[in-house]
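hey
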């Protein structure tokens, strides 16, 4: 009997918690899908299109994860954690006092490195090119871009911008930060070294978001009010092209392999694909999706695209050449962001 007790003791001692091998969540060859309503990341194998694992973000309070970005060296992830569900639209923030947060994920360590509060609900969080700073947009009528030290999370500076800023992104190899402010008719340009606004580019009124273009000097501005896409050249600070639409556009991205512009149409559950013919962008294809396509990401040398559908909790895999849906999987609740690591 005493030997049985000793045996159990040895097993218990040898299997203490610190000795248990932790799962590896993040590996190359993955698409990371952010699930806003459960603060998790579905890690998708880009070859087999299966969910390899699901990582849950350690955070405080009633937060709703919104949009996900890799640092330039792929060592970390940055995620906005507003205490507000943006899937319900932005209008609920008007007149409210809603806080935000930022989470930082250690990719190599497969863990939540830390999180810190910000003064208002934030739309996204993104690392500077050198990884030393985290920039986040505060979606209030007194709009600001807040910049934090990525090591100690101390506030470096708040830059006043127009009311209701949405996504903040970088361009020109990190020299410029850009944000579209929803209650204006301008794209705000910030010099990332001086951290000062250097230009307000005239665009269509009430812009929704700005997204990276096909080159470092090109960005796309989506406009749900006017149903347009403005194409801006950051060398001249001017709108150089546009796409007139008959639907409310969402996330917009360019496929350089096929020279196609892919646009989410969340209200009609479609992806719209355009190509430049002569002087105009013409509709080439439209693809039916599940409920509310929110973001897309190209994988496997731009030959396939993943679309995440926020209100059906699914991800669909589409062949870029045939424009056919070839696979679909369930992910977490209310997916709203995707980051590709190939």
């Amino acid at each position: 009997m005493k030997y049985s007790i000793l045996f159990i003791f040895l097993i218990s001692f040898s299997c203490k918690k610190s000795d248990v091998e932790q799962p590896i969540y993040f590996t190359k060859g993955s698409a990371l899908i952010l699930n806003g309503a459960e603060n998790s990341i579905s890690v998708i194998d880009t070859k087999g299109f299966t969910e390899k694992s699901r990582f849950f973000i350690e955070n405080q309070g009633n937060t709703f994860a919104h949009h996900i970005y890799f640092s330039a060296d792929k060592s970390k992830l940055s995620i906005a954690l507003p205490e507000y569900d943006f899937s319900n639209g932005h209008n609920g923030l008007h007149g409210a006092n809603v806080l935000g947060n930022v989470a930082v994920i250690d990719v190599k360590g497969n863990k939540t490195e830390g999180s810190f509060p910000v003064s208002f609900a934030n739309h996204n969080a993104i690392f500077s090119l050198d990884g030393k700073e985290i920039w986040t947009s505060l979606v209030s009528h007194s709009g600001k871009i807040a910049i934090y030290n990525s090591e100690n999370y101390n506030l470096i500076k708040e830059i006043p911008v127009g009311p209701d800023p949405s996504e903040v992104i970088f361009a020109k190899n990190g020299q410029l930060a850009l944000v579209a402010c929803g209650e204006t008719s301008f794209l705000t340009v910030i010099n990332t070294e001086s951290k000062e606004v250097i230009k307000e580019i005239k665009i269509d009124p009430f812009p929704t978001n700005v997204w990276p273009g096909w080159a470092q000097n090109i960005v796309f501005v989506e406009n749900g009010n006017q149903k347009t896409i403005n194409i801006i050249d950051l060398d001249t600070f001017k709108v150089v092209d546009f796409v007139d639409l008959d639907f409310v556009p969402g996330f917009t991205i360019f496929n350089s392999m096929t020279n196609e512009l892919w646009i989410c149409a969340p209200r009609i559950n479609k992806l719209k694909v355009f190509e430049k013919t002569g002087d105009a962008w013409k509709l080439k294809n439209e693809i039916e999706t599940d409920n509310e396509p929110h973001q897309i990401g190209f994988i496997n040398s731009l030959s396939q695209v993943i679309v995440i559908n926020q209100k059906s909790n699914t991800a669909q895999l589409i062949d870029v050449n045939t424009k056919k849906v070839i696979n679909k999987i369930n992910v977490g609740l209310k997916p709203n962001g995707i980051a590709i690591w190939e």
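The two ends are 56 Å apart (CA to CA). Confidence is low (pLDDT under 50) at residues 1-20.
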